[in-house]
Structures are given as C-alpha cells and as structure tokens.
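forwarding from the other thread:

> can someone predict this with protoporphyrin IX containing FE?

sure thing
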Amino acid sequence: MEMNHKSEVSTLKNKNKQTNEKETLTNQQGHPVTDNQNVRTVNNRGPMTLENYDFLEKISHFDREKIPERIVHARGAGAYGYFQSYGTVNGEPVSKYTRAKVFTNTEVQTPVFVRFSTVVHGKHSPETLRDPRGFAIKFYTEDGNWDLVGNNLKIFFIRDPLKFPDMIHAFRPDPVTNVQNLERMFDFISMSPEALHMVTFVFSPWGIPANYRHMQGSGVHTYKWVNDEGKAVLVKYHWEPVDGIKNLTQEEANKIQATNFNHATQDLYEAIEKGNYPEWELYVQIIEDGEHPELDYDPLDPTKLWYKEDFPWHKAGKLVLNKNPENFHAEVEQAAFGTGVLVDGLDFSDDKLLQGRTYSYSDTQRYRVGANYLQLPINRPTKKVSTNQTGGQMDFRQDYAEHKNPHVDYEPSLTDGLKEAKNPGVEHEPYVEGNLQRNAISRENNFGQAGETYRRLNDWERDELIKNLVSALSGCQKEIQDKMVEMFYQCDQDYGKRVEVGLKNSISSQADKMEDAVSKADQMGHVSDPY
Ligand code: HEM
C-alpha cells in the first residue's frame, strides 16, 4: 500500500454541486439499488443465487474496469487548457511560414488536452524515476485535431523506428525476473552509439524533472510548416515553462520517492485546483527545407539538437492549463495521441523515426482503447465529423456526427452523400528520388553533440552525471563497461576519464560495502510468528 501523504486539496468535497441533496444510487440500467451491502442468499448464510442482476452487473463491470495500459508512457497525468498563438514569428506574420489556422488565427484560444508521463514502467510506478517525460498535446482546432506528441528532452535515444521495440525491451524489467536490470539497458546502448547524447541528458539531473509544471517540452522531431503557396520550411517546437525549469538530483528524488510516488500528478492537480495555472511559451526554430550539407549532422536526425545560437528560438504562442479532468479513466487513460494527427498547414518531415511512430500510435490505440477510440469525448474533434467509417464495437457516433444522408455511406456518389473537401491551399509536393535501401544516414556524428552537451552542463550537473553513470554501470559486466567508457572518451576525453576512474574506485568500495552488509545481516535477528 502506498504511504499516506498529505494532500492540500480534498477530493471528497462535491465541487460540482452546491446542494446537499443526496443522489440515489442506481445500476447501469437505471434501476434504483435498494441494498448495496448484501447479495441475495438462501437464508443469511447462503448459498447465493445466480439471478442477482445488480451483483452480476457490478462484479462483471468491475472485472473489466481496466484496459491494457499504454505499452510505453503508462504512468501519466492530464489537464485541459488552451493554446493562444501570438500570430507572429521573429517579427513576421506566422502566415509567411504556415497557413495552419491554429497559428494564423489569433482571435481564438484553441482548447487543448495535455498528458504528461514517464516512459518505461507501469501505470502506478513512481514519478521520481530517471526517465524521459512525455509531453503530449491534443489541440482541438477549428480544422480538426492536431496532436503534438513530444517529450521533455529535445532529442531521443535512437533514429530508426526498427530499433524501438528492442530499446524498450532493454529498458524494461528483465522478462525472467521482472526486475529492471541496467545491465540490459547498457548492453543495448553500448551497441547503439547514437544513444550517447540522450544518455548524457538522462543520467544528468535533466533525467529527473522535479514535476510536470517545471519542465520543458519538445516536439523532438523536425516537422514542416506549409504556407498558402505550398512552400515548406523545417520546424521544431519547444515549450518553455513560465515558472522556470526544476530538476532533481538522485538523492532528492530518493527522498520524495520514500514517501510519495504520485508527487508529480498530485502537484499538477493541486496547482490547477488552487488556480495556480501552469503556463508554457511555445518557441519554434525554423530552417529552410532541405538537407543542409553545411551542418555536420542531418537536420532530420532526432538524436541532435539544433543549437539556439545557430537557429534561434522564436516565440510563437502560449499554453495554459486551467482545468483538471473529472474522471481519470475516461479522460486521461483513454486519451489517444498520435504523430499522424496533423492539420492543414502542418506536415511531416522525412525523419524516419517520426514516420515509424506515425503507424504505431493509432495501431496500439485500436487495440488498447478500441476500434472506435476516436469517438470518445476526449479524442473526438470539436469540429463536426462527417465520415463513412461506421460500425465496429461501441459505435455511438449518432450523438455527435451527423450524416447528411445516412443511406449513402460511400463516396463518390451522384446523390447527396458526403463530398470531398476542396483543398484549402496549394498542395506541398516535395520531390523524392532514390533507390530503396536499408542504410543508416550519412552524417551520423554520434559523439560530437554528446560531448558538447557534457561540456555545457553546469559543474554540479556534470558531477551528478558521472556519479549516476558510475552507479548504473558498476553493476554491468566488464565488457559493457569498457565499451561504454570507450564511447564516453569519444564524446569528450574528460567524460571518458571520469567514468573510467569512477568505475575503478567503485569496484574497490563495493568490496568494502559487501563486507559491511554481510556483518550487519549476521547481527539482525529473526522474528517469530505470534499468531
Ligand atoms: C506513447 C510508440 C518514440 C513520445 C507511445 C505509445 C506507443 C509509442 C505505442 C503508446 C500510445 C498509446 O497507447 O496511446 C513509439 C515508437 C517510437 C516512439 C514506435 C519510435 C519509433 C517516441 C518519441 C517521443 C515519444 C521520439 C517523443 C518525441 C511519446 C509520448 C507518449 C508515447 C509522449 C505518451 C502519449 C500519451 O500521453 O498518451 N509511443 N514512440 N515517443 N510516446 Fe512514443
């Protein structure tokens, strides 16, 4: 059982109703429940009879209360709010770059739902773990939904989607023991040099954000903005928390985790209840569409930063979260975000990781939530839906999607069925040519930015990074340690040296600790069962 921790906001008060009037309990058929304490039995000791409809309904529904948790990012918290575009970017109208109304129309505050999350562990795992944090936003725009499914960190471990399932397996608990074993993680990383940059962030204090309100967000991938003429630029999105960024050292995180493993969810919920609404400013980086051979990395590579000094951050809008969900399961658990969910004026880049993700999200959601997951209030757009995609389990669209002529559930048709929309602007038609092949990108440059990030950390952050890496690697076999040290050297000489020395020292201090632990265990007594 979780340790009890003090909450500043009571959730037992009825916030929706000012009246003391009591509501009558019913079953799901609307029948009043007159006894919710006793099943029907022959005499009061039983046996029980099978026509107990209220009991059967209640227990059968309970048996199905949970849906499969997300395959990653299972632990999360969500909130509603709005996004407001500033209408300009770097002093120019944003319409120069994109015709997306969510950016060009400054008259509207676009409603949003945001879900924050950790990645690796299950739905009730501690929120203090060293892990990237998810930052997924659903914009209910006037042109339909746009999802920006990002993380707190600006880069990612890998650049090829084929590696994602292996990466997640390696990070998860061992399939035999169900215990997370960092040796498995570093085994994978030691063979995936592109991960070194992300590892440098994740093992520094940036790997444990203090909560969800004081962390950044990033779209990570390169996307495209498309203007009225169908011209595209490459764009990256970043969210900057107005109240500043706060991260935790491992020691601070351990202290919180000892008494509370919901601290980030609780912090977000309570801040919003108290009217202390979290805010982020959206910044964009924009560069010309193209391969940019002048860079020593590929601009589409999600393991790389676009440095601010090369590509300045321009303010583009504001995100405010001002309302908590009323039902965690319905709104947060069933929320379904996907990288394929774009609106006119926003487009994909050729980033392979992004393209791989785009299949994965809606695929898992059809399994996790159901074929008609897009009909749920949390997922459906505020814009009217007119589609011939009907049927499937739990199709209840009639409450929101009108069909002009429901007899014509096909298109094209000469009668009055649904008609194709007019293209809202000139189509962006990128030119693509080449041989189909299986190859890594040419400008991998796996260590350059990792070294630069190492040098740019504050001294205390660098100290923490070394301490955390040494502690994590000290349980790995020598071959993995050696490979990791060799790669840290390639990032930066000092980086490699410090991990190498740290590991040597930790081996001798571990031997001392073992002796200590053995003698303490000997002194401890056994207890006998008093019952
Ligand atoms: C969740 C796949 C990379 C951010 C998920 C889910 C899947 C998935 C299957 C569960 C979705 C659901 O059940 O609703 C992948 C694959 C990736 C990848 C295949 C790489 C090929 C990334 C990257 C980011 C990211 C690079 C950050 C930019 C997220 C977030 C969620 C998520 C924030 C949670 C969304 C929510 O709150 O519901 N991912 N992912 N993922 N992923 Fe990824």
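Residues 70-73, 76, 115, 117, 134, 136, 149-151, 156, 161, 164, 220, 335-337, 353, 356-357, 360-361, 364-365, 368 surround protoporphyrin IX containing FE (CB under 6 Å). thats all i got for now
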